[in-house]
Amino acid sequence: MSKSLVLLCSPRENGTTDELALYFIEGYKRESASIDVAALRDHDIRTCVNCGYCSSHPLKCVFDIDDATTLLERFLAARLVVFASPVYFYGPPATLKALIDRGQKYWTGFREELASGHVIELLAAGRVAGERVFEGTKLILNCFSRVMNKNKPRAFSYRGLENPGDISPEIISELRSLGASVARAVRDEQ
Length: 190
Description:
- The protein has helices at residues 16-31, 53-56, 67-77, 94-102, 104-108, 135-147, 169-188; strands at 4-8, 36-39, 80-86, 118-125, 154-159.
- The chain is of the alpha/beta class.
- It has a 5-stranded parallel beta sheet with strand order 2-1-3-4-5, sandwiched between helices.
- Helix 1 (16-31) links the parallel strand 1 (4-8) and strand 2 (36-39).
- Helix 1 crosses helix 7 (169-188).
- The radius of gyration is 16 Å and the shape is globular.
- The two termini are 15 Å apart.
């Protein structure tokens, strides 16, 4: 298993955030060949039903038979996790939120430990207005990353991107450079 994981969080295949991730991955692969990609839309993720099972059985969930368990384990094992996510109504898409909520089993067994591992957020919003359009998603991912024992996420937010064709050459260059620099940082930590 790779030490780096990119989560494609959009329900739309080959959409804007998939493209953002692709440019990041291109830069990353210039410096390191090892990176896993998982599209959440291709996974069966049951929603948390607040049954309380994880409270009485820390680190366990009644739905541990679905794909959320494997995805969360991959998240924990990774030195780098990248969320490539659209922003819907100031928050993450439903499948990503379902995965985050399933992380509740880790919250119930949470131990304050030294955070390790990097988290990058590549967030895209179609709207150009809205001063706080990214705040909800950033707050949720920050909280989730902490529970999953990762460092505070570094966020890269892009407005006015409805379609992949809206991604400017400047953004493409920035993402490739970011991917390469993050790959070097992850490699140098080993």
